[in-house]
Specification:
By secondary structure, the chain is of the alpha+beta class. Helices cover about 25% and strands about 25% of the residues. The protein has four helices and 14 strands. The chain is globular and about 85 Å long.
Length: about 250
């Protein structure tokens, strides 16, 4: 449930509580009506406000709607997302992060952090290289069928075997302007390269550019919209047979 819906529900229960109390007092009675209010409505109000505070400031749930993070996360998994960590420190490489993407969508996306500001990143023959080091990725479902490089203040993608490097379209992807980069071949400040573990079935940074931890999106369908990270997914809690802690890799 979204925090605003929960708050509305709490407000309705509170109004019912007020009406019950007023009617009981007008009837000069502290009998069954007041007992119902105290025993049933008051706990709902307290629980609702507590849940609202937790969802708004501490943690939220996230339901997995697609196969982009298979095998780490499966469709219908329900996660807990820590909303505090990224207020203290930026996302780390390997984090499974929840964030608003630079494309139009009804909900946040969830992907793995593959590159931070200042990193060099490329993908060649299915292998991700970060700062020149090939990453060992036991968590992925399959290797990408594209090559990728960051250079000349752009993200370039090439389908394997086609030898045809193409820059991402700024009308469809978030690529900060040259003035915001510190080097033409390094991820710019406040920008992150995100990928799904199911590499061949994931719309991620190779498609829509960089996620951001601050500011507004520079280009793409949501240019000018506020950017940021919602939080870090840290546990699968449903279904019970899938319950596990999600560790950074």
């Amino acid at each position: 449930m979204k925090p605003e819906y929960l708050l509305v529900l709490v407000a309705i229960i509170f109004l019912v509580r007020v009406v019950v109390t007023v009617r009981a007092r007008r009837a000069a009675s502290t009998g069954r009506s007041m007992t119902v209010a105290k025993e049933y409505l008051d706990p709902f109000i307290v629980a609702g406000l507590t849940a609202w505070l937790l969802i708004t400031f501490v943690a939220r749930t996230y339901y997995i709607p697609s196969e982009s993070m298979v095998p780490t996360l499966l469709v219908h998994d329900v996660l807990l997302v820590d909303k505090i960590s990224y207020r203290v420190h930026p996302p780390h490489d390997g984090d499974i992060a929840v964030f608003p993407p630079p494309v139009v969508t009804d909900d946040d996306f969830i992907k793995r952090v593959m590159g931070q500001p200042g990193d060099k990143l490329r993908i060649q023959s299915g292998v991700v290289y970060r700062n020149g080091v090939a990453l060992i990725e036991p968590y992925i479902n399959n290797r990408p069928t594209y090559n990728l490089k960051i250079e000349n203040y752009q993200i370039y993608v090439e389908d394997v075997g086609e030898a045809n490097w193409q820059p991402l379209d700024p009308t469809q992807a978030n690529i900060p302007p040259k003035s915001q980069w510190t080097a033409p071949d390094r991820i710019p400040p406040h920008s992150y390269f995100m990928m799904g573990d199911n590499r061949q079935d994931s719309e991620d940074s190779h498609f829509w550019g960089f996620a951001q931890d601050a500011g507004t999106f520079a280009t793409g369908p949501r240019a000018g919209a506020k950017a940021g990270f919602t939080g870090r997914a840290f546990v699968i809690f449903w279904p019970l047979n899938r319950a596990t802690i999600l560790r950074r890799t």
